[in-house]
Amino acid sequence: MGKTLRLVLDVLKPHDPLIVTLAGELSDLNGIDNVNISIYEMDRRVENAKITIEGTDIDYDQVLQVLTDNGATVHSLDEVVAGFKIIDDAETLQDPGN
pTM for the whole thing? Predict the structure, then answer.
C-alpha cells in the first residue's frame, strides 16, 4: 500500500500560536519532512492558512490532532499525494487559462 507523501490543507487558526510554532510542531511528527504555512487572510481573531505538508509517511490523524490541540480547524483537504513518489497535477483543458 502506498504511503501519504503530501497533504494540502485549508485551515482556520487563531493568531496564537504563531505559524512558526505550528510548523515546528507539525514537522516534529514522524514521517513528515517539510511543512509550509502561508496566511492568505486575517481578521481580528483568526487567520486562514494554507498548510502544505510533505514527507515519507504522513499520518493524517496525527496532523489533525496537532491542529486541534492548537485551536485550528480544517476547512478542507485540498490535495493528497500518495504512493511511492510525489507527482504534480497534469494540466488539463479544465484548468483556468486553457
Answer: 0.90
